[in-house]
Amino acid sequence: MARTIAYQGTVFAIAFAREKNGACPACEFFDSLAQLDKAKLMALFRIAGDHGKFFNPEKFGDLSGGLFEFKSFHIRMPFAYAKSERGLILITHGFIKKKAKAPMEEIARAWRIYEEDQAQAKLAIVGKTKR
Known about the structure:
Elements: E1 4-8, E2 13-16, H1 25-32, H2 35-51, E3 60-64, E4 67-72, E5 75-81, E6 88-91, E7 95-96, H3 104-127
Parallel strand pairs: 2-6
Antiparallel strand pairs: 1-2, 3-4, 4-5, 5-6, 5-7
């Protein structure tokens, strides 16, 4: 199942990761947001996609271990760089942050979704090879 591209930049494509069952938690979260919140996140996607560098810790967070987050006030959307596809940023899901630090269960969820997406991408690449 194809990923939804949130933004195609000059440096990176920003896409919503898929779970192994085909669900797209990032799509569902993003679609549930108010138009103003979507616009703020799209501005962050454009910065990431067109420049590839993040200098504002209030808008881009490092969750460690290769996991990062787009930040818009209390809204968080974790992401990681795709290992199997160069020039791709995968957003795993979204959540409303209620405490000072990102909850460990949200970080674990982000890694699970990312790994499921990468496993599916690997299967798709193997399926395209000549036999």
